[in-house]
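SAMPLE LOG
Freezer: B-3
Tube label: C17
Construct: single chain, 391 aa
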Amino acid sequence: MSEETNTTAFSLFELNEHLKRVVAFNMRETLWINCEIADVGRSKGNVYISLVERNDFKISARAEAVLWGRSLDKMTEKIGDTLWSILQVGRQVLLCVQVEFHEYFGMKLSIKDIDPTVTIGQLELQRLQTHKKLETEQFTKLNRQVPTNLVWQRIAVISSSTAAGLQDFLQQIKTNPHQYNFQYELFDAVVQGVHVPKEVIRQIEKIEARKDDFDCIVLVRGGGARLDLMGFDDYDLCVALATCELPVLTGIGHDIDETLADLVAYQTLKTPTAVADYLIHRILDFESTIVQSALDIKRLAIQKIHKAHNKIDLLEAELKQSVRQQLKSAHQNLDGIEEKLRLLNPQTILARGFSIVTNEDGVLMRSVDDLEADRTYYLHLKDGKVEIKLD
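STRUCTURE (predicted):
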């Protein structure tokens, strides 16, 4: 038998059992590792996570980890819903793990604890960098410059159909005390997790293709943990909102929440209910302006009518005065004419001692040269006429 044939062979189980003892003996303590979540799954109360490390965007290491139900309960009690915001694909995490090896399942990292401050800190740093980039590229005020209609009643709503914030928004506009009628269409998108940017951008593109059907875009969701809202800090999402040809209203989270999507919106409101109130009061302000304009027009019309009446009264008084003056002047002129006629009246002349001579035809004789022999003339005096015959 050859030397190779005499070599002792181990079964796979024996090898794995040996590795299990080696790992158990040499890696008794927990250790902290910095890594990225590549995949997350849940089964039977446990959470199974694929971890990776990248070097220049290439994966340089990979390991499988598990968060057993008991540890999951402890961590949930410790940091609340923030845990599920951290356990998202693409998150950078700092985990406390125990290395375990099983003959059948192989090596796994049993997660014992998580440091949320590392994930939050890294995301916040990324958020600050995105914020600065948006300001440098002048996206922060772009949407506020789009031309808008005076009244916004046709609304494109981006939200999840199951989001509590959406229900708050719809309830507020449906039951508004002024009974304004709003037409809205829901563009369903996830509003939490790593898929938020892609889905919201997709819905924005659908709305932009039908921009003539809407007056504005409303983006709403309810509150949540700070990490739940990180999707709304995405650079591409913010650029899509900033470059919309319709005004964008955001109502994301609670009063204390603020995202970069709020930074680039036409108008940001603290809550979905506040967005509804903004739309209602915008119409109310417009209606109030119309009512006030009508009152102003009526007031100006009354003022002009009063002014016209006063002018008419003044013109009437001036006309009466002018007529009286003209009548007085006419009377004076008539008196003058009458006096002239009286003075020029032949009877008046005769009464003053004058006399006049006329021929048989009544023609006035103005000169001695006008008199002819053998003709009959009449001498008119004050109290009658005398016939005169020249030889």
